[in-house]
Amino acid sequence: MKPRTFRPSPFTAAMVVFVLIVAGSAATAGARGAFNLVSLDQEWQMRDQLRSQVSQEMRLVRSSDDLAYLNLVGRRIAAQTALGNRRWDFGIVNDPAVNAFNLPGGLVYVNSGLIAEADSLDELAGVLAHEIGHGAARHGTQLMTRAYGYNVLAGLLLGRNPSQGKQILAQVVGTGMLTNYSRDAELEADRLGAQYTYRAGYDPNGMVSFFQDLLAMRSRRPTRVEQFFASHPLTEQRIATVRATAAQLPRRSSLTHDTRGYQSFRSDFR
Ligand SMILES: [Zn+2]
Questions:
Q1: Rounded Cα distance, 250 and 51, in Å
Q2: Quick check: 68 pLDDT over 60?
Q3: Which residues surround ligand 1, an ion (CB under 5 A)?
Q4: How many angstroms separate the alpha carbon of residue 130 from the centre of ligand 1?
Q5: Average pLDDT, the chain
Q6: Pairing of strands 89-93, 107-111
Q7: How many angstroms separate the alpha carbon of residue 21 from the centre of ligand 1?
Q8: C-alpha 131 to ligand 1 mean position (Å)
Q9: So what's the pLDDT on residue 33?
């Protein structure tokens, strides 16, 4: 074996370590602990602008009773996450397509068409928990970090260029870029979601039955679900993951499957 002649200076060694850390974390973006330039406080500072962007671009349901009900269920689930001490808000988009999405800063939106198709409370809870899983794992700001890079995000977050900042948040909402998560991110949101629903007291198998309903709808009414399938590649593998996660949780007899309150809420959207 030849003796090693390359001796890195402390500076070179530090640079190599830095580059490896950055490259390593960028490569795993989408998984927990992935590279993210946005702090939690910064993320929650974006929420007001994101919310006003959504209300400009989408038709939102304004009924205060319906919003109160959805937020009660959603916040009960969000309280089970590591970010349960922050504010979460849940909104309803007036749209017959079956879809839901998450935006940075604890924002989750579901379409009225999804509520109509979620037969029982645990099915809706499963969908909300999946979106909350994306939020708690911070998939949105990880994707923004990758899409916009350091310079642009630094400008946005330090308020150096407010008009550029506005443009970016408009793009985040308008292009639906935050619905293009990796398969790993989807699986992580499923796994987290199943745990959150269970801890919140809802039957985690509701997520499984909703996924199965959607697969069945795909052949019956494809246009209603094509958006959902484009942003959430739904496969037998995902259903198996949720089922396996649910099976590992200790048995509990008090899990909620459905309530009269949910059916009365749902009747507003059918
Ligand atoms: Zn998803």
A1: 38
A2: yes
A3: 186, 189, 232
A4: 6
A5: 86
A6: parallel
A7: 27
A8: 6
A9: 55
- Alpha helices (runs of H) in 79-204, residue ranges in sequence order: 112-117, 121-136, 139-157, 162-174, 183-200
CA 157 to ligand 1 center in whole angstroms = 26
Please give the structure tokens belonging to residue 35: 């590279």
User: What is the value of pTM for the model shown?
Assistant: 0.85
pLDDT of residue 47: 94
Beta bridge partners of 110: 92, 100
Cα 89 to ligand 1 centre (Å):
17
Q: pLDDT class for 24, splitting at 50, 70, 90? A: very low
Give the C-alpha distances (Å, rounded to integers) separating 36 from 18, 26, 106, 129, 173.
Answer: 15, 9, 16, 22, 19
Distance 77 CA to ligand 1 centre (A): 16
User: For 228-254, how does the pLDDT look when each residue is reduced to its tens digit (9 = 90+)?
Assistant: 887 777 777 889 999 999 999 998 889
Match 């089922």 to its residue by tokens: 243
Question: CA nearest 70: which of 106, 24, 121?
Answer: 121
